[in-house]
Specification:
Layout: E1 2-6, H1 17-27, E2 31-34, H2 37-42, E3 47-51, H3 62-81, E4 85-90, H4 101-111, E5 117-120, H5 123-132, E6 140-143, H6 159-166, E7 174-178, H7 187-197, E8 203-207, H8 213-223, E9 229-232, H9 238-246, E10 250-252, H10 262-269, E11 274-277, H11 282-289, E12 294-297, H12 303-315, H13 329-342, H14 345-348
Parallel strand pairs: 1-2, 1-3, 3-4, 4-5, 5-6, 7-8, 7-10, 8-9, 10-11, 11-12
Helix pairs in contact: 1-13, 3-4, 6-9, 7-8, 7-12
Amino acid sequence: MRVLASPAFQNRADNPYNFALATALQVEGVEVCEFSWRRLLFERWDVAHVHWPEGALNTHGALRASARSLYLLLKLLYLKARGAQLVWTVHNLESHDQRFPKLERWFWKAYLPLVDTAIHLSRSGMTLALQAFPSLPAKGNSVIPLGHYRDLYENTSDRIAARTHLGLELHRPVVGFIGQIRLYKNIPALVRAFLTGLPQGASLILGGIPASSAVVSELLALTRSYPNILCRLERIPDCEIQFYLNACDLIVLPYTDVLNSSSALLALSFNRPVLVPALGAMTELREIAGQEWVHTYTGELTPALLREALHWAVATTRPAVCDLRAFQWSDIGRKTVSAYQGRLPSLTNKALLPSTI
């Protein structure tokens, strides 16, 4: 079975999810390749596996967004004309930035008829997707979760070593946000809640790549006068992720909108308790990982909510290691192969290669 994925391996530095998925598929005997023009034009594929198609719309300028959207649709039409089945992993139900509503409505109307099978990352995510897209129930639909991030990042430091590395007080409360910083992630609200809700001895860590210069300007204006806020607005090297996560008593993800969250699973992979809004699949994540690891809230993130969540994070008794067996990559690889074959009769008898891993 041959799978052309977009992406497969190339975005590992930003999010190793696709790398881990492609590797798990290779273990199952699937040939997985990264999209390229040569592969598109001159090779045949059983499956075209697409992640984040709405990313074509997350750009500046309606003309550029239109061109990127049309380019993606033409690629998929060509692949399907040559016999490939289109599998879509549903990370989001709309583009994050929502810059071009009319164009986006057109894009989904053109894209969805091309989909043969949809893979949803949670049960609640599938429910929301089937409601949002009336044509989707007629497709093949499977629920296969995000995988954990253990073994994908170095993790040899403990709390003391991490705080020493970052120059933080060893015995003061520390909350943090680690991940890409976009408008919907609502980081200014976290800063304001921290400044008015937690004691002066507490520290806040903000680490990750901002989506725009406007986000950088806003965060620097909010944080520059406070030495207890460690603000690293850039990509954190993989080998240093461990310090920023292990130093925290609580990871706070104050999204205004969310379906699934790699950042939440990353925190849990480092055995850090997380605070998330009760949106999308976050309540389901709490049920799977455990209420001692995932704390949810409704409405706005307030100073009182942050203060309560920090008390919960510090005072709650929990195992040393978060049980993430539900997010094992070996299971995800097998389930993804089954999803490829389940509603796609032409792939049921496709030969799987011996594992090359």
